[in-house]
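Retro notes (design track)

What went well: tokenization of the new backbones is finally stable.
What didn't: we kept losing track of which sequence belonged to which structure.
Fix going forward: every design gets posted as structure first, then sequence, in one message. First example under the new rule, 218 residues:
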């Protein structure tokens, strides 16, 4: 029989709060904050995260996703491997957050890790009303042989992480009166992704604009 630890019990209680009013009446809300103490940290990456509202939202959401992944015995990889991967990820995040163009590096790091956690666990993908992430959603784009997986980070400004074959790109939302538009740039060139309802357009370096349609789930 699986032992329910205090930590797991708190997560179960938090999940119940999302769907009932019992926790509000009992005054037992579980508030997820950053995974580190902003008042005590000395790491440059963590200091930047604490003073930047967008990055702080991403950190809080990723902490939520990670804690959920640890409760999923069917996650891929399994929870013990998720924990190991998270330690390596934190080290890599802190390194990139101390280098040149630290904020862009941190946004990419959080977006990619959120994609990995959501992709690997059905529990992580639960429709928690407090969530700031959605996906991955699969799109089939005319002109690409591989499906494009999109994971959305609903912070301000919004972020989308796109992955297909062995290529990935992290894009930030830009103003557009007619569609939700994301732009991004890396050493390959410029990327754009537009979405209106179920219709999407993708433009990648070296390619003309491609029409994309979401693939059915299941």
């Amino acid at each position: 029989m699986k032992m329910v630890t205090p930590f797991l019990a708190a997560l179960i209680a938090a999940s119940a709060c999302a769907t009932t009013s019992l926790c509000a009446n009992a005054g037992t809300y579980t508030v997820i904050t950053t995974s580190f103490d902003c008042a005590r940290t000395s790491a440059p990456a963590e200091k930047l995260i604490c003073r930047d509202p967008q990055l702080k939202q991403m950190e809080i959401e990723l902490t939520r996703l990670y804690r959920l992944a640890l409760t999923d015995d069917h996650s891929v990889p399994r929870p013990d491997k998720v924990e190991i991967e998270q330690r390596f990820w934190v080290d890599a995040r802190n390194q990139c957050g101390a280098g040149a163009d630290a904020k862009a590096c941190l946004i990419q790091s959080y977006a990619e890790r959120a994609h990995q956690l959501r992709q690997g666990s059905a529990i992580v993908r639960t429709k928690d009303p407090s969530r700031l992430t959605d996906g991955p959603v699969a799109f089939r784009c005319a002109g690409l042989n591989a499906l494009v997986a999109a994971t959305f980070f609903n912070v301000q400004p919004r972020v989308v992480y796109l992955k297909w074959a062995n290529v990935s790109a992290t894009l930030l939302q830009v103003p557009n009166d007619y569609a939700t538009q994301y732009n991004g740039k890396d050493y390959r060139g410029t990327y754009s992704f537009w979405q209106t309802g179920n219709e999407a357009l993708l433009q990648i370096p070296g390619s003309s604009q491609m029409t994309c349609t979401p693939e059915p789930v299941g």
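Added context from the reviewer: The longest strand covers residues 133-141.
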